[in-house]
Design a protein that fits this description.
about 400 residues, alpha/beta, Rossmann fold, 2 domains, seven-stranded parallel β-sheet, about 10% strand, globular, disordered C terminus, binds NADP nicotinamide-adenine-dinucleotide phosphate
């Protein structure tokens, strides 16, 4: 698709990936309409875009966690621009909480409204016209976490997996119509959401050593992919293997969660909303991240005035002294299929290499040091899979 001169509606453009996409698309000659809740940030972005000589974007302050708002947004965008050629469903947030606590509470339902039903409503409102015109694109931003289950993140992962399924189905349904459907699957990307990720029990340690990607680079990849009718963009690239072989990712997640068992407390009844209008802790972590704070332990211990405190070394849901469930066996289970068995073997080999070869590294006797080794190995293992598996597995 040649995107020059087209019109795009981007949700979640007040921050992070959506903001980078709006700027990058504008540079390519796309007229954009931008939506999110924080109208003042959208106005600022519109000023910035206008100052480059590009047409001023239409701005829509909209809360997409409310039913019906997405359809109104679609009508408003069409009124403002004449039509929408590219729909980018990027707005998203998370809710943290143990599954047995969160159940189907309003917070989880609102999350599905934002992450699943609003993109679906925008699609239903805008795609029929794209089809009739024989051209257009729908870009849905999901998450690599859809293949990496993690305690307290069930609602977020389920919502992103649902959006992923909607996207893949839509692509099949629109084959041959001229309407391009793409799923963007980010792993860690350096946006304020990363500040909140530090609050998720164990996740900072699980992701230790993985360098978050850049939202600007991701925006460039999306633009290139739009030009080539690519079905999926997985970013950072290291995660392509993880996404292509989800069984391995799931099993590895489970092992990490078992190793980090002391971080979890399923008796904790808190439900924590993420996002710019989420709970205090989430907002403090986002704001500190925006001010440049990157240390997960400091992000986890911010007090009401936004300063890191010394107490409470564990993550949000993990009070000090939480009892650790019994560690799972480290043996490879007999039922594993061969790629999975090979992957575990590679990871085990890499773990031993890391232990033996890293000069000055502590012996992996504590949970933390063992975990650090495993984390490094997971990344190295992904690179190993990329070189061992057939190239076709990674042609997304
Ligand atoms: N960064 C990562 O590591 C990562 C990884 C995997 C997936 N993702 C996905 O990437 C997408 C963009 O996230 P990001 O990393 O750029 O995070 P971000 O900086 O927090 O941006 C999220 C955007 O969504 C908007 N939004 C949130 N709740 C909304 C609501 N109820 N109604 C309307 N807009 C809402 C926010 O605007 P307001 O707050 O102004 O409403 C903001 O513009 C999300 O779907 C996220 O799930 C990100």
């Amino acid at each position: 698709m040649d995107i020059t001169g087209t019109r795009a509606l981007i949700t979640g453009a007040s921050s992070g990936i959506g903001r980078s996409l709006a700027l990058a698309l504008t540079r390519e000659g796309v007229l954009v309409a931008i939506a999110a809740r924080r109208g003042e940030l959208l106005d600022g972005l519109a000023d910035e875009i206008e100052s480059t000589g590009a047409p001023r974007p239409a701005v829509f302050a909209a809360d997409l966690s409310k039913r019906g708002v997405a359809r109104d947004l679609a009508s408003s965008a069409v009124r403002a621009m004449g039509a929408v050629d590219i729909l980018i469903n990027n707005a998203g947030a998370a809710v943290g909480g143990y599954q047995a606590v969160i159940g189907d509470r309003e917070e989880a339902r609102d999350l599905f409204e934002l992450n699943v039903w609003s993109p679906a409503a925008l699609t239903a409102a805008l795609v029929p016209v794209m089809r009739r015109r024989g051209t257009g694109a729908v870009v849905n931003v999901t998450s690599a976490m859809q293949v990496m289950p993690w305690p307290t993140m069930g609602s977020y992962m389920a919502s992103k997996a649902a959006l992923g399924c909607h996207t893949q189905t839509l692509r099949l349904e629109l084959r041959g119509t001229g309407v391009h459907v793409m799923e963007v699957i980010p792993g860690p990307v350096a946006t304020p959401m990363q500040g909140e990720s530090a609050l998720i029990p164990g996740l900072a340690r699980a992701a230790k050593g993985i360098k978050p990607g850049s939202p600007d680079e991701l925006a460039q990849l999306v633009i290139r992919a739009l030009g080539r009718n690519v079905a999926q963009v997985v970013y950072p690239r290291l995660l392509r293997a993880t996404y292509a072989v989800p069984a391995i990712a799931r099993r590895f997640s489970a092992r990490q969660a078992a190793r980090l068992a002391t971080e979890f407390d399923p008796n904790d009844e808190r439900v924590v909303l993420s996002g710019s209008q989420g709970d205090d802790l989430s907002r403090r972590a986002r704001e500190a991240w925006e001010r440049g704070e990157r240390d997960p332990r400091r992000l986890q211990t911010l007090n009401a005035s936004g300063r890191a405190e010394r107490r409470c070394p564990n993550a949000l849901w993990a009070p000090v002294g939480a009892t650790a469930p019994q560690r799972q066996s480290e043996q490879v289970e007999p039922g594993l299929n061969s790629p999975d068995r090979r992957s575990v073997t590679i990871l085990n080999e890499l773990a031993l290499c890391s232990q033996n070869q890293e000069e000055g590294a502590p012996a992996a006797t504590s949970d933390l040091s063992k975990f650090d080794v495993a984390s490094r190995c997971f990344q190295a293992g992904c690179r190993g899979f990329e070189s061992r598996l057939p190239l076709s597995a990674f042609l997304c």
